[in-house]
Write a structure and sequence with these properties.
The chain is an alpha/beta fold and 624 residues long. The chain is built from 23 helices and 14 strands.
């Protein structure tokens, strides 16, 4: 048989509509292309595939591709956060971390700005590392102490900056020091002779941790940046060197893998475009330094080891998106302060991606990727449109004062939380596949990210799982007071042994597990009479009846009525999983307390059940 020769042969090009037709043919018409598009919280959907045909429209993004240098691999700097409680402990932690290949530090000075850098950096032989100082409006004081110390020889090789974003402070707290822009100018003057040291930042994580969409995070970060450029240029500050040498971009990195990669690239392009609008010509998108922080929006209080997986994929997104610095949140941050083990895990994520996954061997792995280019292009367009809309309100500060920024983010934030409550989105360990044996002390957790789901005047950081956390913590507090025997119990009862009935039994475990209720399903393989007899042994239990949609409603109603008439069932809560064919008729059954299906708001119903069970006895506990 002759071999087929493919040299110098070509195939007729196939355009995107032809690919669409082929996909629909292969799917036998059971769905449409629109249903194959991925829905997002952005003002656009994500196509299921891309072709070279449309790649021409993304040529302008080639400026974002990192220049290849075979002698210089892709580099990033892992930053370890150290909460400074006193100079001695900070010195000890820095020395310990430097032995583990840490590239730099973020010194948390919120509690102790009156530090002595001579003591913090005492007897540290290695001086080629980054050091960033993080405080609030006392940043100027911290900088003065640092610059005074920088005159000594030992610190000449150190670089880093002040992570100081006063507009972010305004966003989170609703107030700002009136002299912040004058302070920034003073800080620029103080660090004029310190090489590679930034003095202010734009912190996009403020928006991501408040529940914003990626488009909103980009747009409002751009608006912040434009506000700084306007104020500083009006005060006579030359933007050319200030933007490229004295600014750090702090970027929050969330869970949507491909969108987050595109976000890092879009952020560079948008800041580059705005800089050019302000007359800064001799600048490249790669002149901006991006410090990525993994998001707190999606971190679990319960089953916290899942957070390690989340921060790993987020770090991958940040690196593929071009981040220069990486700060990885400790997996146990939602419930306790950082410790040696959690810091080690965070460091090892960076080490694993560098030394085992070899993320440092390719300058720009996503350059020219059609999916990433498409998402980058869509994010740039959508963010620029919202940025211009924000500018129409008078710029970032005015838009914030008018409530425009808060209103825009609040709509997305509440939609995300609502989707979580309806199980359209799920988080392992919290809303799905909970660890039933897990016990956590409600009096010994970090409540920083367990605030009000609805935004008021400030962009309060929050965990998307706040309301689920509150459900579970109320149960844990109740059990802590009375003992494990008082943990609310759920007994699934299968009315028929079908695949649908069993699936609903599993869903009952996920649903009630969100509130920390105990699932007792040891009898589901027994006959119906045996299941009902067993259920009667627990007078305060929740009975979860499970059947398929074709079960006979009249027979079910009679069964429920007869069951409720038993004196052992008077205090039990009866619920039905699913939505039977004759749902309206079944709803007329007085014996049933609750119906649970995909449209049920998990938070509202479980809160109501907690009240009925005595888990919640006061209004204060409802809001705990």
């Amino acid at each position: 048989m002759d071999k087929i020769k493919l040299e110098n042969q070509s195939f007729d090009p196939i355009d995107k509509p032809q690919w669409y037709d082929k996909i629909i043919e292969d799917l036998k018409g059971k769905t449409s292309i629109e249903k194959l598009k991925a829905k997002t919280y952005e003002p656009f959907d994500v196509d299921p595939f891309y072709t070279e045909q449309e790649s021409g429209q993304w040529k302008y993004l080639e400026i974002l591709n990192r220049p290849t240098d075979k002698n210089k691999p892709r580099e990033w700097c892992y930053l370890e956060r150290i909460k400074v409680t006193n100079d001695f402990n900070a010195n000890k932690e820095i020395k310990k971390a430097l032995k583990t290949d840490v590239g730099g530090f973020i010194l948390d000075l919120y509690d102790d700005p009156d530090i002595q850098f001579s003591k913090i950096l005492d007897s540290i032989e290695q001086t080629e590392f980054k050091i960033f100082l993080e405080s609030d409006n006392r940043a100027f004081t911290c900088l003065n102490r640092f610059t005074d110390y920088s005159k000594t020889e030992i610190i000449q090789n150190l670089s880093g900056g002040i992570l100081y974003d006063p507009l972010s402070l305004l966003s989170r707290h609703g107030s700002i020091d009136d002299a912040v822009f004058s302070k920034i100018i003073s800080m620029l003057e103080r660090t004029e002779n310190i090489k590679d040291f930034t003095v202010f930042s734009v912190d996009s994580s403020t928006f991501s941790n408040a529940g914003a969409s990626v488009t909103q995070e980009l747009a409002f970060s751009c608006s912040e940046f434009a506000e700084y450029c306007t104020r500083l240029s009006d005060m006579g500050v030359p933007l050319q060197t200030t933007i490229s040498e004295k600014l750090t971009i702090e970027m929050g990195t969330g869970q949507n893998f491909f969108l987050e990669i595109a976000k890092g690239r879009a952020l560079r392009y948008l800041f580059y475009k705005i800089a050019q609008e302000f007359g800064v010509k001799d600048i490249s998108p790669h002149d901006f330094n991006i410090l990525s922080r993994t998001s707190m929006w999606n971190k679990s209080l319960f089953d916290p080891y899942v957070n390690i997986l989340r921060t790993t994929t987020e770090t991958m997104s940040a690196l593929l998106g071009g981040a220069d610095y990486i700060k990885i949140a400790d997996f146990n941050a939602p419930f306790r302060p950082s410790d040696d083990f959690s810091r080690r895990i965070s460091r090892n994520i960076s080490h694993l991606l560098r030394h085992e996954s070899h993320f440092d061997k390719v300058a720009d792995p996503v350059a020219g990727n059609w999916l990433i280019d498409s998402l980058t292009d869509k994010l740039i367009g959508a963010a620029w449109k919202l940025f211009l809309k924000t500018e129409e309100h008078g710029g970032y500060m005015e838009a914030l004062k008018k409530g425009f920024v808060q209103q825009e983010i609040n709509e997305v934030r509440l939609r995300k939380i609502s989707d979580l409550a309806a199980h359209k989105e799920d988080y392992i360990g919290t809303t799905k596949f909970q660890m039933s044996a897990e016990i956590i002390d409600p009096d010994a957790i970090n409540h920083d990210f367990n605030g009000n789901p609805e935004i008021d005047k400030a962009l309060t950081p929050i965990s998307s799982m706040t309301e689920f956390n509150q459900l579970r913590l109320r149960t844990e507090a109740f059990v802590k007071r009375l003992g494990q025997d008082y943990r609310p119990m759920v007994i699934p009862v299968l009315l028929n042994n079908t695949a649908v009935a069993r699936a609903r039994k599993e869903y009952a475990g996920l649903f009630f597990g969100s509130a920390g209720f105990r699932i007792e399903d040891s009898m589901v393989n027994k006959s119906l009479d045996e299941q009902l007899e067993y259920a009667h042994k627990f007078p305060k239990a929740i009975i979860a009846f499970c059947a398929d949609n074709d079960a006979l409603v009249d027979e079910e109603i009679k069964l429920f009525d007869d069951y409720k008439l038993n004196e052992k069932s008077e205090e039990q809560i009866l619920s039905v999983l699913g939505k039977p064919t004759d749902y309206d008729k079944l709803k007329s059954c007085d014996a049933i307390d609750f119906f649970i299906n995909q449209k049920t708001n998990t938070i509202d119903l479980l809160t109501h059940m907690q009240k009925k069970l005595g888990v919640i006895s006061t209004e204060k506990e409802t809001e705990a």
